[in-house]
Amino acid sequence: MPLLMLCGISGGIFLVVTGIIHRKFLAILMGIICCSFVIMPFIFLNKGINGEDILHIPAVLYWVLFSLAGLLAGINGARSKIKSIRNTGFIIFSVGLFAAICYQLMSMPDSYFIR
Description:
The protein is mostly helical. The protein contains six helices and no strands.
């Protein structure tokens, strides 16, 4: 979880700054989305709001959407031939996908796999 938060916040800020430098609106937008996906649960927790009641999506889908935002930024960087946006996007994608898979595996009951 700390790696996911670090990757989401620092990667999102990096995408915003690099998108501003290279004038890539999609990279700026994906950076804002990545930051907000990581920060939003803490804002909800601070306000005493259950995020799943408002968003109506499961946690795994939430982190997969975070991961897809990174993939879209990586594809945008690859098409524009900007290595920093491409690498950051693909790192966010891989870390987000790994976190979603691990979260799904941890949330399954043990008796389902062990017989």
